[in-house]
Amino acid sequence: MGALWIAHVDVTDAEKYAEYVEIASIVIPEHGGTFIARGGKFVQFEGRERARNVVARFPSVEAAEAAYNDPRYQDAVKIAKMASERELMVIETTD
Fold first, then answer.
1. In angstroms, rounded to a whole number, what is the distance separating the alpha carbons of residues 90 and 74?
2. How many domains does the structure of the chain reveal?
3. pLDDT in tens, the chain (95 residues)
4. What is the DSSP letter of 46?
5. Domain limits at 24?
6. What is the reported pTM?
7. What is the three-class DSSP state of 34?
8. Beta partners for 53?
9. C-beta of residue 28 within 8 angstroms of C-beta of residue 35
């Protein structure tokens, strides 16, 4: 089963957050992740709105977990936490 990595983000320090994006843009694809939405227009129907929304498709939940647990990504997480407020989840797809 595939998986979707879904992040909802409010960036508080754009310059610092760009450092996170640079690392994530390398690590996520190395683990089979493909970005299918990265920022862009959205409509919030319910819940808390965040200014930036990102979705990446992975071949499996395990592949997404491997990306998240990659030491390079964990270094990027430290940067992201200093430069944003965010929620991140991975959900298995039905395909």
1. 16
2. 1
3. 999 999 999 999 999 999 999 999 999 999 999 999 998 999 999 999 999 999 999 999 999 999 999 999 999 999 999 999 999 999 999 98
4. S
5. 3-40+49-92
6. 0.92
7. strand
8. 8
9. yes
Among candidates 71, 75, 83, 87, which has minimal Cα distance to 31? 71
Residue 90 CA to residue 23 CA, distance in Å, equals 19
* Tokens linked to 48: 């808390």
Q: What is the CATH number of the domain that holds 59?
A: 3.30.70.100
The residue type at 5: W
**Whether 10 contacts 86, CB under 8 Å:** yes
As given in the structure block, the two tokens for residue 21 are 């994006």
> Quick one: tokens of 45?
């129907």
d(CA 77, CA 88): 11
